[in-house]
UniProtKB/TrEMBL annotation:
It comes from the Eukaryota. InterPro entries: ECM_Assembly_Org, VWF_A, vWFA_dom_sf. Residues 27-170, 185-374 form the VWFA domain. This is CO6A5-like protein. It comes from Mya arenaria.
Length: 385
């Protein structure tokens, strides 16, 4: 029996109460009209998942084993084929599949093939990354491609207790009309300590260029402001404020000129950067107290750190990164290089799925998920249902 076969089907049929109870309803225009939906949750209970987290939602956990995601997807396909989506009055329910997994399947190609087949029978497949080392590449291959509602249908949840965010996304998906009513302030933070190799820094520049030119350059009705900081061995430098009006193209041209200054003469990258000054903590302080100080209350504030790891992450509830997370600011990490270890930065992020690893040459597609975190949508519901 495959581990990834725990699924539930339920319907969301919206019923409007009619004044007077005569059954003759007159629908008036509204910002967002609800629609019918069938929802399937496909849960990963493999050995790579935390049994403690899983028990928070379910009373059982299957025996440890491989993650046979393809079998779970195939069973969901058969299920939706066997049950009609037709409803009363010639209505048809939309169908959504929510896959919760770390994306580390035992048979990756079979998983991608099964997902492609399932997409022919459902409205959307949404993939939610959970676990200590999420494979964003596989999640992107499983989920439905992005559209005018979302850049990608790959998401993160802080833990299983945050599953209510999935329902919020469902509401956004099942709205006939959604308003883009959000704005984002994004601060890119470059690790420019002398301990980072030229190769790793070059990859950081390439990854940042990819985000600016391909991922964030989308025609969504949101306001995105960009800032750029770097931290070296002894100081923090602000390269761009949120209020700067220079174009994205000029920012890309600027970052192409950046180079790492070595603080020790004649030393290798491994031997440099031994300063006791914690410039990362200083940079986070400057972002919190300076860069984000002018943000509006409803603006999503995001920090994207590019590093090869080996960071001195301060501990304690009064540390800058702890205050940033507690205040609702989102910290994402782009790890660079073959030797990068996800565990080296997990103390910075609130969810392991917020760590994106770029190991292979020119492999940045997994960074597309970052756009989903930044370019978020909202539905304003005017109907009570």
């Amino acid at each position: 029996m495959a581990n990834l076969v725990a699924w539930i089907l339920f319907s969301m049929d919206c019923q409007h109460k009619c004044p007077g109870g005569d059954g003759n309803c007159i629908y008036t225009s509204a910002i967002c009209q609800p629609t019918m939906a069938d929802v399937i949750f496909l849960l990963d209970s493999s050995i790579s998942q935390s049994a403690g987290d899983f028990r928070k939602q379910l009373d059982f956990i299957n025996s440890p084993g491989g993650t046979f995601t393809h079998i779970g997807l195939e069973k969901v396909k058969q299920h939706v084929k066997d049950i009609s989506a037709k409803r009363l009055f010639e209505n048809t329910a939309k169908r959504y599949v929510f896959l919760l997994t770390d994306g580390m399947s035992s048979c990756r190609q079979s998983t991608l093939d099964a997902a492609a087949e399932l997409r022919n029978f459902v409205t959307k497949i949404l993939a939610i990354g959970i676990g200590s080392e999420v494979s964003h590449d596989e999640l992107l291959g499983v989920a439905s491609p992005g559209d005018e509602r979302a850049p990608e249908y790959v998401f993160s949840v802080h833990n299983f207790n945050a599953l209510y965010t999935i329902i919020q996304q469902l509401v956004a998906l099942t709205c006939d009309e959604c308003l883009w009513n959000t704005s984002s302030d994004v601060t890119f933070l470059l690790d420019m300590r002398s301990g980072i190799t030229d190769l790793h820094f070059s990859k950081a520049v390439d990854a940042l260029t990819y985000l600016l030119s391909d991922t964030l350059n989308k025609n969504y009705n949101v306001t995105v402001r960009l800032a750029l900081l770097s931290f070296g061995d002894e100081s923090v430098q602000i390269h761009r404020h949120l209020t700067d009006t220079a174009t994205t193209d000029s920012l890309i041209q600027y970052i192409q000129t950046l180079t790492v200054s070595r603080s020790c003469e004649g030393g290798s990258a491994e031997l440099c950067g031994s300063s006791n000054i914690n410039t990362l903590d200083t940079a986070l302080h400057d972002i919190e107290q300076g860069i984000f100080s002018g943000s509006k209350n409803e603006t999503r504030q995001t920090i994207i750190l590019f590093t090869n790891g080996d960071l001195r992450i301060p501990t304690g509830s009064n540390s800058n990164h702890s205050r940033l997370k507690e205040s609702g600011k989102l910290i994402l990490v782009v790890g660079l290089g073959e030797e990068f270890k996800v565990g080296s930065v997990q103390g910075l992020v609130s969810d392991p799925a917020y760590v994106f690893v770029s190991r292979s040459e020119n492999s940045f597609r997994n960074l597309d998920v970052i756009a989903t975190e930044i370019l978020h949508t909202s539905c304003e519901l005017t109907n009570n249902f």
